[in-house]
Amino acid sequence: MKLKLFQIDAFTSSVFRGNPAAVVPLDAWLPHETLQAIALENNLSETAFFTPSEDAGSEFHLRWFTPGLEVALCGHATLATAHTLWNHLGHGTDTIRFSTRHSGVLRVTRDGDLIVLDFPAYKLEPIAVTTALVRALGRQPTEVFRAGPKLLAVFENKRDIHEADPDFAAIAALDCLGVIVTAPGAKHDFVSRFFAPGAGINEDPATGSAHCALAPYWAKRLGRNELSAHQVSKRGGVLRCVDKGDRVEIAGHAATYLEGQITIPD
After folding, report:
1. Whole-number Å distance between alpha carbons of 105 and 84
2. Is 46 a catalytic residue?
3. In Å, how far from its chain's centre is CA 131?
4. Which of 46, 125, 249, 259 is catalytic?
5. 20-52: per-residue pLDDT in tens?
6. Can you list the alpha helix ranges (DSSP code H) found in 115-183?
7. Are 154 and 205 members of one domain?
8. pLDDT at 56 over 80
9. Which of 66, 162, 179, 192 is the most exposed place for a label (fewest CB within 10 A)?
């Protein structure tokens, strides 16, 4: 069986930056084990698979896999899928609706060359700063929140984010999918990084779903809803966020790196 595959760099205007995602169009779902094997073979932080939808409220079904597991929500691979549909597969409308297993219907629109994701916001639950978390991060945050499956650790100096050198085994042992670290920015409203070794990703380069927690936090702290974000991984990523209460708009650009074909057993 031969399948199309696109590799898209998300939250960047140029290749070799942002977060690479693989996108695989399907006519119908393959077995879960096959999808997971393809994601492991790709060895990117996420591989997105989509099929045509028969639901009245959406046009496509969408799923996301890390090399180790299927996740409930992924921003950069959703952005990459929309980019693929518009730029390579001839999708004609400016709005695409994706039906997902755990995050409802996600609406994606294009505004010129900017792609805008409409995602659910995470509720932030303050929790204690534990010794295990401090040891894992190698430094002490001022406050910590549980945000869906993730932890959000806040620092006051962006240097703490740039210089963070976490213990990935210790992070993987924490009771969460991964840890977001953040601090006020200089050229941008805030900076962040995201570590998820338990999901097979030591550091994710540019993470849309993390901003479902970051945007509500910084909107409340800064007193405004429109925010500029910089994820300061080695590859880096730039995002525009709008806090809308129970929803978050996350916008960015994308660039195509690869168009190809994969072969898998029937």
Report:
1. 19
2. yes
3. 27
4. 46
5. 999 999 999 999 999 999 999 999 999 999 999
6. 131-137, 158-162, 168-172
7. yes
8. no
9. 162
